[in-house]
Amino acid sequence: MLKQNTRDKGESEIKKMEFKKEKNEKKPTVFLVQENPYINVLSAQEYGDIVLLFESGQQIMFSPQPAIKKLRRKLKDFDDNDYLLMMGDPAAMGISCCIASEMNRGRFKILKWDKIQKKYYSVSINIHEKGEIDEQDKL
């Protein structure tokens, strides 16, 4: 759940948001890799329902197998309509990309935060796409 600080009548309150537990087959899903209670990710809802992969504070340490099993279960229906929202433990982010790619024939999308525009943008990735090495220079 997400904690968001708000001001009401001069007092500080904590507003909690419940994330979805599972993917809804009919709607796009934003898979939040790991929640950070100090960052508001509600604007990512414009891309789909938010499903949390790891709670705040969880770390992948010496044995990644339980985390891999959990991600395989949660990302089993990942498809072209879904997104990964990169936040949290770098190991969890890396494994999430690997599993999402595996579940969707090498394709996945991430949401990237633009701090100037203050909004998320979608970045599509296809690890099997054949491109030229200098492709970036031709843009």
Key terms for this structure?
five-stranded mixed sheet, 139 residues, two-stranded antiparallel ribbon, disordered N terminus, 32% strand
Can you offer a commentary on this structure?
With 139 residues, this protein is of the alpha/beta class. It has one domain (29-127). Helices cover 17% and strands 32% of the residues. It is built from 2 helices and 7 strands, in the order E-E-E-E-H-E-H-E-E. The protein has helices at residues 65-74, 90-103, and strands at residues 2-8, 11-17, 29-34, 49-54, 83-85, 107-114, 119-126. A 5-stranded mixed β-sheet has the order 4-3-5-6-7. A hairpin with a 4-residue loop joins strand 6 (107-114) and strand 7. The longest helix has 14 residues, at 90-103. The protein is globular, with a radius of gyration of 16 Å.
Our Rg estimate from Cα atoms comes to 16 Å
Tell me about the biggest sheet?
5 strands, mixed
Helix content: 10-25%
Number of strands: 7
Write out the strand line-up for the largest beta sheet, numbering strands in chain order.
4-3-5-6-7
**Count of helical segments?**
2
The secondary structure category is alpha/beta
Helix and strand sequence = EEEEHEHEE
**What characteristic shape results from the CA principal axes?**
globular
Percentage of residues in strands: 25-35%
Arithmetic mean pLDDT: 83
How many domains comprise the coordinates? 1
How far is the N terminus from the C terminus?
Answer: 40 Å
Low-pLDDT runs of 5+ residues are 1-16
